[in-house]
Amino acid sequence: MKSAFSTLGVPGMPIPDVVELAVSSGYQGVELRCHPEEPVHPGVGPGVRAAVAEEFARAGVEILTVAGYARAADAGVTDEAFRAEVDGLLRLAGDLGASYVRVFPGGGDAAGPEADETAARRLGAAAEVANDFGVRILLETHDSHRTGADAERVVAAVGHPRVGVLWDVMHTWLGGEPPEVTSATLGPYLGYVQVKDIASARDTTPLALGAGVLPLAECVGTLPEDTWVCWEYEKRWYERAAPLPDLLPAGARHLADLAARARAR
Fold first, then answer.
1. Are 15 and 57 in contact (CB under 8 A)?
2. Which residue of 88, 129, 143, 196 is surrounded by the most CB atoms within 10 Å?
3. pTM above 0.85?
4. Torsional sign, CA 89, 169, 153, 1
């Protein structure tokens, strides 16, 4: 198993510091939150992109994902606007050498078949551009499509290898879907897994891995050995949460222990 962390946990941290943190804490990759308030986003120019890619390559740390905020099922945006946003993310991922672009469903509380169709149509149209850049678009289990079954309906309808699913373990748990069901449902659609921990369904303040209620061992136990697992610590949304850098080394050890236990079964 390969481990990464999301820069959502270190808001605004300069890229050299992010890379050093990954190396010193024992992570092989980083998921880059791509938003205008971060150092890396689709608005940065060629020089910045080249420097970021070189910084990561020099340290031997992989840029796993360009984590964008495009919403595939959102009826409030046009197909053209979604496509322009995703094309920008794909181009950025290609320039950085990232494997994935993350998108959200964003279908709203009353999402149904129409939201599925909208998301599948948009992702299918973007798939060929993703193919040109050698990048895979991942629909995160989130908001209107929080379970594996929800996400699978969309990506199965797309039917393109450049479109898959990012499994956020908190959202599938909140959706009442057991880890073994999620894993079996996603099958070949799975890109990688985001792990985190929380105190309860009502208190989702981020905690150290293993300190909360999420079924992390059960999730990791279902995964192929070469799966990437990324710690998404939502410090940006919970300012009073403990600083992530202090927690990262123990988090890497916890993930390695979970993987070792899974292999020993």
1. no
2. 196
3. yes
4. positive
